[in-house]
Amino acid sequence: ETPATVAAAHEFVALLCRRLIEEEDHLTALDRAVGDGDLGTNLARGARSILSCGEELTAGNSLSGYFRDLSTTIRRGVGGTSGPLYSLLALGVAEGIGRAQEAPQLEDWGRGLDIGAALIRELGGAKIGDRTMVDALAPAVEALNGPAASHPEAVAAAARAARQGAESTGAIVAGLGRSSYLGQRALGHPDPGAIAIALLCETAATHLGA
Ligand code: ADP
Ligand code: MG
Ligand code: MG
Question: Which residues form the signal peptide (predicted)?
Answer without folding.
Answer: none
